[in-house]
Backbone:
C-alpha cells in the first residue's frame, strides 16, 4: 500500500521513472530497422513515433527526478541539495544514472529543430548516438537501487529482458544486417547518366544482385565513399529493380550533399542500409492503377510501373514538373507506353498559389475534380503517390475526396 504525503510523491516518482524507461526502450526499438515492423508501418511513420515517444519519455524522466528528490527529501526532512548529494554518493548506480541523464538531455536539446538547423548532420548524428549510452547507463541504478526491483527476481528478469531485446535488435538489424549485406554484394559505381536539370542516375555494379531482397518502390540509405562527408546517409529509391549485375538509383540535386552524386567516378564504393519502405505493390493484383509523381518522386513509381501486373490501358501516370525540360526518363516512359500500355500525362507549370497538387494554370479546378477528370476510374484504382510532403498531402486529400479507398492509397514520405 502507498501512503499519503511524501511517500506518495516518491511512489509517483518511481512510476514516472518506470514509464520513462519503458518508452525509452520503445523509442530504440522503433528505429531498430526491424524488417517486419518497417514493412508494417513504414519508416516515415516510425520516425514520427520515435520523435514523439522520445520527448514524452524525456519529460517523464525529468518528472521522475523531481518527484524522487522531493519525496526522499521530504521523508528524510532534509533540504533538496543535501538529498541530491546523498543519493549520488550513497545509492548504487546513481552516478552512472546522472551521467546517462546528462547524455539524454544533450540528445534532446540537439534534436530540437532550432538546434538541428545550426548543426551539420554528421555532428548531430554523432551526438544522437549518445542516446544509446544514456539508455545503458540508466540500467544499473534501476536494478540496484529501485525499490520495485530489489526484492523481486521477476521484476529484475523483466527489466533485463527488455534491455537485452532492445540491444539485440540494434546489433542485429542496425549493425549486423548492413555489414553482411555490403560484404555480400560489394556495390560500386559503374557509370553516371544525367537525366535532366539537376537529375542524375547512378548505375551500380555488384555481386549476386538477384539475391538483393528489395521490392520495386523501396529505398536504401546510401553512403558513397568519395571523400569527406561520406558518413551522411541519403534515402534514395531504386528507379529500377536489379537487372543482371546492375542496379540504378536516380538522385535530385537538392543542395544537401546530393549534388556530389553527379561527380561520382566509376569504381567508387557504395554502402547501403535497407531496403526500407512500404510503397510497394504487395496488395495490387490487377485492375485500374494511377501513379502521381512530382519531380524526383518519379523514381520509385518508375520501378513499380515495370514491376506491377497491370494490363494494357490499366495504368495512368500523372507526372508533375514545372516545364518540359524537367521531364525525365522520356525514352523509358515511351517504352512503358508502347510495351505496357501506360498512359503518361505530363502536368506542367509553376505551383499554384494555394495548397494543391495542380499547377497554377489549373488551380481554378478543385483538386478532386481535376483528378476525376484526368482518370475517371480513379475511385476504383490503386493510387501510388510520391513527391514533396506538401504536394503529397494535397494528392492524398484529393484522392480521398474522389472516392479512393484508404487501403488502395499508397504514399510514403522520404524526409524526416
Residues:
Amino acid at each position: 500500500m502507498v501512503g499519503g504525503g511524501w511517500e506518495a510523491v516518491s511512489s509517483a516518482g518511481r512510476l514516472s521513472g518506470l514509464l520513462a524507461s519503458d518508452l525509452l526502450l520503445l523509442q530504440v526499438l522503433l528505429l531498430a530497422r526491424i524488417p517486419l515492423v518497417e514493412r508494417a508501418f513504414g519508416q516515415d511513420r516510425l520516425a514520427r513515433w520515435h520523435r514523439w515517444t522520445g520527448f514524452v519519455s524525456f519529460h517523464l524522466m525529468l518528472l521522475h527526478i523531481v518527484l524522487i528528490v522531493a519525496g526522499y527529501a521530504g521523508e528524510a526532512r532534509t533540504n533538496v541539495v543535501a538529498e541530491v548529494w546523498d543519493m549520488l554518493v550513497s545509492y548504487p548506480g546513481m552516478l552512472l544514472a546522472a551521467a546517462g541523464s546528462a547524455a539524454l538531455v544533450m540528445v534532446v536539446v540537439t534534436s530540437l529543430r532550432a538546434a538541428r538547423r545550426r548543426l551539420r548532420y554528421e555532428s548531430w548524428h554523432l551526438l544522437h548516438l549518445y542516446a544509446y549510452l544514456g539508455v545503458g547507463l540508466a540500467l544499473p541504478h534501476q536494478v540496484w537501487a529501485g525499490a520495485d526491483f530489489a526484492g523481486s527476481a521477476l521484476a529484475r528478469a523483466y527489466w533485463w529482458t527488455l534491455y537485452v531485446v532492445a540491444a539485440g535488435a540494434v546489433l542485429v538489424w542496425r549493425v549486423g544486417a548492413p555489414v553482411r549485406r555490403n560484404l555480400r554484394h560489394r556495390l560500386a559505381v559503374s557509370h553516371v547518366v544525367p537525366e535532366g536539370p539537376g537529375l542524375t542516375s547512378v548505375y551500380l555494379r555488384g555481386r549476386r544482385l538477384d539475391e538483393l531482397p528489395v521490392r520495386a518502390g523501396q529505398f536504401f540509405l546510401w553512403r558513397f565513399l568519395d571523400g569527406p562527408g561520406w558518413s551522411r546517409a541519403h534515402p534514395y529509391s531504386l528507379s529500377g529493380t536489379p537487372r543482371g549485375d546492375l542496379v540504378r538509383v536516380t538522385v535530385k540535386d537538392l543542395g544537401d550533399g546530393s549534388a556530389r552524386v553527379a561527380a561520382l567516378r566509376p569504381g567508387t564504393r557504395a554502402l547501403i542500409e535497407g531496403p526500407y519502405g512500404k510503397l510497394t505493390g504487395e496488395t495490387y493484383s490487377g485492375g485500374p492503377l494511377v501513379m502521381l509523381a512530382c519531380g524526383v518522386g518519379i523514381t520509385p513509381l518508375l520501378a513499380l510501373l515495370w514491376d506491377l501486373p497491370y494490363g494494357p490501358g490499366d495504368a495512368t501516370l500523372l507526372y508533375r514538373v514545372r516545364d518540359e525540360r524537367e521531364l525525365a526518363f522520356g525514352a523509358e516512359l515511351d517504352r512503358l507506353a508502347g510495351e505496357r500500355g501506360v498512359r503518361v500525362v505530363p502536368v506542367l507549370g509553376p505551383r499554384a498559389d494555394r495548397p494543391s497538387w495542380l499547377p497554377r494554370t489549373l488551380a481554378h479546378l478543385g483538386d478532386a475534380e481535376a483528378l476525376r477528370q484526368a482518370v475517371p476510374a480513379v475511385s476504383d484504382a490503386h493510387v501510388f503517390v510520391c513527391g514533396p510532403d506538401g504536394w503529397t498531402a494535397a494528392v492524398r486529400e484529393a484522392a480521398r475526396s474522389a472516392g479512393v479507398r484508404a487501403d488502395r492509397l499508397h504514399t510514403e514520405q522520404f524526409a524526416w
